[in-house]
Design a protein that fits this description.
Strand content: under 5%
CATH superfamily of one domain: Tetratricopeptide repeat domain
Mean pLDDT: 78
CATH class of one domain: Mainly Alpha
CATH architecture of one domain: Alpha Horseshoe
Structural class: mainly alpha
Radius of gyration: 40 Å
Low-confidence stretches: 279-559, 1197-1208
Strand order of the largest sheet: 2-3-4-1-5
């Protein structure tokens, strides 16, 4: 270790004082203790230099493991060549040899003061250690100072007794070197890199882990090669370090700790790689004490985060040692509970680190007494514990005593009234055909009885629920009664049968995020994964036949749980020792608690250094052992699956089940990338062709959701060529066709569907479903659409049954957009189709099409129900074209209601392709309506329409961009977009104004340019088509523009009719009523009827403010000012329109005060309070007192502070 010493002034002062004491003729033994890398040798060398400067004769030696077997090897090296010892043989007269060596030391002392410096005395041979301890008893009358350094660190294997075990505390001064504080480490970093930023410095401090050795090694690596920017980046991998001093220092630290400790350290590093990234350690934290709640359930709380001053207080005066070892009891007996005898013997406390943090053994230190006091009067064994309740068991959340069952996390017992939940890995007490908990929205689409799948079985039946038209193979009575079998067999069950017979073949047993539970009792002792050839886990606890157990509290998603048991089993170590080691390393700074309180390496670079050179098979064995242990104790499936991701194929059925359950959880949480990883790993397991086909279909669908379209298409194409039952062939073909269409390869998609349809000649119902999917996907290409709908129309007229209910619904939609039928007729036909039996695979097409038609018909509530029902039926792990269509319809419904905030939230989800989507078009118009034109322009600039394939969503986007251009003063650009939208829609035979009313938009631009006749012709045609569909929204909009284009008295009549039609509509048509009122108000102003005009304009302003349509609100205010109105129109409604008195009274009322209380508090008459509240209700547009808090919060004027009493 190089570099200056920090925070070692107390050690230097102690040694300087003892040197002066030796010069005065009184010697002593000084023992410098510390963990590996804390700088014991550096402090000893400083003492040697100081002693030489003060005139002492220095005798120094550094012990090594090679000299341990040779008697008196350390003393002989220390005292120099001794002629009389040249012929000494091992096993000779130790007492005589010791006496002669003592006489030699006395002869040196007779010549002058002597400093005997022994480095790493824990490596010395036994004879030399006894000689040194005996010398310490006699040097108090000699000018001899004995200084020894001893490694004192909590290890998995208990160390031999310490040097001072049998010495009286008065004969020895023990000083423990604490780890570097963050402040001291930061100072060293700044000395090496003066220009380093604070975050960079913090990274280096964390990687240094409080160890001077590691910190200096890392600084040497980072400073060894000049960096262009002056300060090199902090890597996460040791491969980026040169010359490699840091990994070499970590390797030395591991070797000095022993093979068992090194194995546990590497196992922890390997396991940490599989822990969720969201729970990284607090890399901005300090090395000081953590809050009391940093460790969940009190796990090692007192041990890990005591202040560190306990050791200095306990041992500075030596009194504790005198009490602890007055009987001369052997350390091996004193610490039979598993504590390191080395640490216990030398200081009668747990290790240097453990002692300095208050860490005693799992039993001895729990009472807070010094261990020597606790055990000085009786046999130091587990049976000699004081009578009475176990202090650790009595403390809530404390660690269990040795041999007691350990839970994943300490938790309080569940109340008697709490419902008992079964963990998904538990063996069921009664046979069930499927797990009771399926993810909300995760339909059992792969199961043969998919009807009602995805719906809560406790919920009332949906009004749209129907039984399938065709009998399903999974219906009761068609299959033999399944055998009773738990969802997870014994881990040794082979994987030749991926699912027990009772399960639906494609059921996703969703693991609900309920409190995880574990089996009663601690897993038996296991050999761990020490051998590479291990394939089977230890035998699990026998399954219970009841639901009686104490559930663990709910943890954060993906929590790694208590790592002690898992780490102990993976490494084949004693859990008690592992728990103590984790606490000790946390106190030293090598580990730090993450957000969940679990110990992790302080920095990824440190973790990588620990893993360096560890063979891959060993790491894989550790992850498999961890997965098996976590499965047995009932951890969450994703926590288990993350370890399986780092193992080769297990070949047992439980692994495949865990991975598939993890897929379901990830999909339900909208994490397709995680689900893709689990599925890719699942494909490594032994699979039948049928199961592989299904998993490939799911994987391709999820890769498409993760924006990896090429990989998705490759997976789906591979799945299509594998044998599968017909229904699964349909699902794969629909998914592949959707992926190809999303990429613009519509013709290839249609060819895939046609080939699949040809293979389904024996299944006409499934063939019709494939035809319907092709018709829906044909919307992406003009020529293909014309061809498909031509055939569909001809077949539907002659034999409607050949196109099925979903195909007929598509024909209704086609007729609606072509302006051939009315809304009432369309809804009548759609409702008839919904009442007919439908194959489950065709049902999504029927629901999505019916929802779109209902939205156009202004049956918004019915459309919303259909959308929600269709989305529930969509399996989130399967790609389906109706998923995107249903989301588009949902956005259409929200836009029809004028909910701009929700519309913008819906548009935040990216579309399946690079081009603009229907939701992007709605977002563009919502930004325009809310006055955020700058944001709208930035959104429009994101898309290059030259690279976008022609489809119906592009047409809607062109209309929306025309609205934006018209609002930003670019009427020419707006006219171009509207005309282009109209041209494309007409080519697709979409002439009805129900989708994109481009004619009215063009007419308004023409009027602005002074082209009245052209505008009148367009508006007249729009009204004709609108009356065919005949909904208030389309008719009222067309009447508005036609009235403006007509002008005069007839124009006023048309404008009045437009307002009346929209105002009397049963649906929410405010987004059309506002511009209709504005147009009528302007026409009335032109006609000189200013009173009526102001009334209409104020109504428009009120509606615009309610809808948040700032653009129309501004236009209404401008028109009102032109009509002679005074005051700001925006100040008439909303929370901003409240006066000070009204706001004060409203806030008191919102806080629950009665009118009488408010009157008394403000010294007002009750009638005055009521008058103010009436005015407040009108301005806030509410009717009830209970609506006050929400209305004030929305307006941003609700006071957060309590109202002071005005009388004070």
């Amino acid at each position: 270790m190089t570099g200056p010493l920090r925070e070692r002034d107390d050690a230097h002062a102690l040694l300087a004082a003892e040197i002066e004491r030796a010069r005065a003729g009184t010697g002593r033994l000084v023992l410098l203790r510390g963990a590996g890398g804390t700088g014991r040798t550096a402090v000893l060398e400083a003492a040697v230099r100081h002693a030489g400067d003060r005139g002492l004769r220095v005798l120094r030696v550094r012990c090594s493991p090679e000299d341990t077997p040779v008697p008196f090897s350390m003393v002989l090296h220390l005292l120099g060549p001794v002629p009389e010892f040249t012929d000494m043989t091992p096993g000779g007269d130790d007492r005589g040899s010791a006496a002669r060596l003592w006489r030699l030391l006395r002869s040196y002392a007779a010549e002058g003061p002597v400093l005997v410096a022994v480095d790493d005395v824990h490596l010395a041979d036994d004879s030399s250690r006894r000689w040194l301890a005996e010398a310490a008893r006699h040097v108090d009358r000699l000018p001899v100072l004995l200084v020894a350094t001893e490694r004192s660190q909590y290890d998995i294997d208990p160390r031999p007794p310490g040097l001072t075990q049998a010495l009286s505390p008065s004969l020895v001064r023990t000083h423990t070197l604490a780890p570097l504080s963050d402040a001291a480490a930061a100072g060293l970093v700044r000395d090496a890199f003066p220009d380093a930023s604070a975050p960079w410095t913090r990274e280096i401090v964390l990687a240094g882990a409080g160890s001077p050795l590691l910190l200096h090694a890392l600084l040497d690596d980072l400073g060894g090669t000049p960096h262009p920017d002056g300060v090199p980046p902090v890597p996460d991998s040791c491969a980026a370090l040169y010359p490699g001093s840091y990994p070499a220092a970590v390797s030395w630290w591991l070797n000095s700790a022993g093979p068992a400790t090194a194995d546990v350290a590497r196992c922890l590093a390997a396991l940490e790689q599989a822990w969720p990234a969201s729970a990284v350690p607090e890399r901005a934290g300090s090395n000081g004490p953590a809050p009391d709640g940093a460790w969940p359930g009190g796990w090692a709380r007192e041990r890990a985060w005591a202040t560190g001053a306990a050791a200095e207080r306990a041992w500075s005066n030596g009194a504790a040692q005198e009490r602890a070892w007055s009987t001369g009891r052997a350390s091996g007996q004193a610490w039979s509970t598993g504590q390191a005898s080395e640490q216990a013997g030398s200081t009668s406390q747990a290790s240097d680190q453990a002692g300095s943090t208050g860490l005693a053994s799992g039993q001895a230190g729990s009472t807070g007494q010094a261990s020597g006091q606790a055990w000085s009067t009786g046999p130091a064994s587990e049976q000699a514990r004081p009578a009475g309740p176990d202090p650790e068991q009595a403390r809530p959340g404390g660690p269990p005593r040795q041999g007691a069952p350990r839970h994943a996390l300490p938790h309080p017992p569940a109340p008697a009234s709490e419902a008992v939940h079964r963990h998904p890995h538990d063996t069921p007490a009664v046979r069930a055909r499927r797990p009771a908990a399926t993810a909300p929205g995760c339909r059992d689409v792969w199961g043969t009885d998919a009807v009602d799948a995805g719906r809560d079985p406790q919920a009332p039946p949906s009004p749209y629920t129907r039984r399938p038209a065709f009998p399903e193979s999974g219906e009761p009575g068609l299959l033999p009664e399944p055998r009773e079998h738990g969802p997870y067999p014994h881990p040794t069950e082979p994987a030749d049968v991926p699912y027990p017979p009772y399960r639906d073949p494609y059921l996703y047993p969703f693991t609900a995020p309920a409190p995880a539970a574990r089996y009663d009792g601690r897993p038996g002792a296991a050999s761990g994964a020490a051998g590479y050839g291990r394939t089977d886990p230890p035998a699990p606890t026998p399954p219970r036949t009841t639901l009686r157990y104490t559930p663990a509290p709910s943890a954060a998603r993906g929590s790694a749980g208590d790592p002690v048991d898992v780490l102990a089993e993976a490494a084949g170590a004693d859990p008690v020792r592992v728990e103590g080691w984790l606490a000790a390393m946390t106190r030293l700074g090598l580990l730090r608690p993450d957000a969940g309180g679990h110990p992790r390496y302080a920095h990824p670079l440190l973790r990588d250094a620990v893993l360096s050179g560890w063979p891959r098979p060993r790491r894989e064995a550790v992850h498999r052992a961890a997965a098996e242990a976590m499965l047995r104790r009932g951890d969450r499936v994703e926590a288990v699956a993350r370890h399986l991701l780092r193992t080769p194929a297990v070949g047992l059925s439980w692994a495949l089940r865990v991975l598939r359950d993890a897929v379901t959880v990830a999909v339900h949480d909208a994490r397709p990338a995680d689900a893709v990883g689990y599925l890719r790993r699942a494909l490594d397991e032994p699979l039948t062709d049928d199961l592989r086909q299904r998993l490939l279909t799911e994987l391709g669908s999820l890769e498409y959701a993760s924006a990896d379209t090429p990989a998705a298409i490759a997976r789906l194409a591979e799945a299509q060529h594998l044998p599968a039952e017909p229904r699964n062939q349909v699902r794969t073909a629909v998914a592949l066709g959707t992926a190809l269409a999303g990429r613009g390869e519509i013709r290839t998609a249609m060819e895939v569907l046609r080939r699949t349809e040809g293979r389904l000649s024996a299944h006409p119902g499934l063939a019709r479903t494939v035809q319907t999917a092709g018709a829906l996907l044909s919307d992406e290409d003009l020529a293909t659409r014309q061809q498909v709908y031509r055939w569909l129309s001809e077949t539907g007229r002659v034999s409607p049954e050949l196109v099925g209910t979903a195909g007929q619904a598509l024909l209704v939609r086609y007729a609606a957009t072509a302006g051939l039928i009315s809304a009432d007729e369309a809804m009548t036909r759609v409702r008839d189709l919904l009442a007919q039996p439908t194959d489950p695979l065709a049902e999504p097409f029927l629901l999505g099409t019916a929802a779109a038609v209902a939205q156009w018909a202004d049956a918004l509530d019915e459309a919303e129900r259909l959308v929600e029902r269709g989305l529930v039926g969509q399996h989130p792990a399967l790609l389906h074209p109706m998923q995107h269509a249903l989301l588009n319809t949902r956005a259409d419904i929200v836009a029809s209601r004028g909910d701009h905030a929700r519309l913008l939230a819906l548009a935040a989800d990216p579309g399946p392709g690079p081009g603009p989507t229907n939701r992007d078009a709605h977002a563009l118009m919502a930004l325009v309506h809310t006055g955020r034109t700058d944001e709208a322009l930035r959104l429009a600039d994101r898309f290059d329409l030259r690279e976008v394939p022609e489809n119906w969503e592009l047409n809607r986007y062109l209309y929306a961009r025309g609205v934006l251009r018209a609002a930003t003063g670019d009427p020419t650009g707006a006219l171009h977009d509207f005309l282009e939208c109209g041209r494309r829609q007409s080519a697709r035979e979409v002439v009805s104004p129900v989708v994109t009313p481009w004619r009215t938009a063009v007419a308004e631009i023409r009027l602005a340019f002074g082209s009245g006749p052209e505008a009148l012709a367009l508006a007249t045609e729009e009204l004709r088509l609108a009356r065919v569909w005949n909904t208030p929204r389309t008719v009222g909009r067309a009447l508005r523009v036609l009235g403006t284009a007509t002008g005069g008295r007839r124009g006023l009549e048309l404008a009045e009719e437009a307002v009346r039609t929209l105002r009397d509509a049963s649906a929410d048509t405010d987004m059309e009523l506002i511009p209709a009122l504005l147009a009528q108000g302007r026409q009335l102003l032109d006609a000189g009827e200013r009173g009526r005009a102001r009334s209409r304009l104020r109504e428009a302003a009120d509606l615009a403010e309610r809808k948040g349509a700032l653009r129309w609100l501004t236009q209404a205010g401008q028109a009102l000012r032109e009509g002679g109105a005074r005051g700001s129109v925006a100040a008439r409604t909303g929370a901003g329109a409240l006066t000070g008195s009204e706001r004060r009274i409203a806030e008191l009322a919102a806080d629950g005060r009665t009118n009488t209380e408010i009157a008394d508090l403000l010294h007002l008459a009750r009638r005055t309070v009521e008058t103010h509240l009436t005015s407040t209700y009108r301005k806030l547009r509410i009717r009830r007192r209970t609506e006050l808090p929400g209305a004030l919060e929305r307006g941003g004027h609700r006071e957060r502070e309590p109202h002071p009493d005005p009388r004070c």
